[in-house]
């Protein structure tokens, strides 16, 4: 396929087009991913997550520059929310990264969530693979500004950075389940603000309570991304994390789990598409919906019958 | 999934007045488009490269400073050079009527001057995007 060949030769136009192809599920999307798959698996994938306004984009911008100084190439996927009403989106994270636009070693792509619940979609993981196949050394996924439970990022990233800012919430937040559990590294950004010490203490206390699952205690780093403060230290911590998970076998475990999840998701999709196509073929499904809606049948019985008929 | 129309909204050159651009961006969002908003004071080179990376269908530029005759055509040329031609290029802002034919000759498909209802921009994009 021409687009794949050109991408592998380093064409940024082909790279951009390949991401569009998977994002819009064009017919050739599966073929593109199939051909690129063998070239993936080399990049270090870093997830950047945290509440809206924590400074994720600015931090990503500065981290990317630091990696560039180290001679690494960088891909960035910046995700912003899609309107549930119009389906439109304002993708505004590039504003913080305009300096990177002309660096040939950096490629930034903005994506809307387009209805995915955890703030990321399979399209995101495919875009990561495309950047990986293109040869980017480090790939950032900057999530949509998350609330408490949008934790999908752990399934895609090798290292997850949770960005916090002083002055949000009280200490009950620190013991809830959710994004505070998923950090491999915590960054207290805007650490020049009041409340940074308190936030630091609360995070440490939360980590004291956490059960050690892997032998890695997530370090807490302070940054002021707008002033480039703490960036080098944060990059050093990310390197320590990746070295640790490499050595402990945790990285391989995560990647196995990821591959398994991806295969299961593909399988589920394929199976439900098959079932829906067949069930829908004669418009019979809508009739069944009506019978259930009118309480003539119950949905459990109907679904079981559909499956039984298919298995025959 | 259906294709979403993607639009880059950008302000080239030394012009910090972006309220109009933001209003247009919001209107496009409400029309169901994905709007990549890149903010103020960009060079034509940055706009063309962002349009390439984002693979947008439309590049919408707004300019109030008077430099449109140089900066808009420059973006068109750069997109061609980068192999990312074929996008719908539209302009807006304070642009004298006398300049519009020249801009169109240079590859800007349409120019929307102050007072244009945002609907007409939406309709124009829907009708003309490939």
Describe the protein's topology:
The complex is a heterodimer of chains A (312) and B (130).
Chain A: H1 2-8, H2 12-23, H3 29-37, E1 44-49, H4 56-69, E2 74-80, E3 89-91, E4 106-112, H5 122-134, E5 138-142, H6 153-156, E6 159-164, H7 179-182, E7 185-188, H8 196-209, E8 220-222, H9 231-248, H10 250-280, H11 284-293, H12 299-311
Parallel strand pairs in A: 1-5, 1-6, 2-4, 2-5, 6-7, 7-8
Chain B: E1 6-10, H1 19-30, E2 34-37, H2 44-54, E3 58-63, H3 68-81, E4 88-93, H4 100-105, E5 110-112, H5 118-128
Helix pairs in contact in B: 1-5, 2-3
Pfam family, one (chain A): MeaB
GO molecular function (chain A): GTP binding; GTPase activity
Protein name (chain A): LAO/AO transporter ATPase
3D structure, described in words:
The complex is a heterodimer of chains A (312) and B (130). In chain A, 48% of the residues lie in helices and 13% in strands. Chain A has 312 residues and is of the alpha/beta class. Chain A starts with a helix and ends with a helix. The model of chain B has no long low-confidence stretch (mean pLDDT 95). By secondary structure, chain B is an alpha/beta fold. Chain B has one domain (6-128): Cobalamin-binding domain (Rossmann fold, 3-Layer(aba) Sandwich). In chain B, helix 1 packs across helix 5 and helix 2 packs across helix 3. A 5-stranded parallel beta sheet of chain B has the order 2-1-3-4-5, sandwiched between helices. The interface between A and B is medium-sized, with 30 and 30 residues.
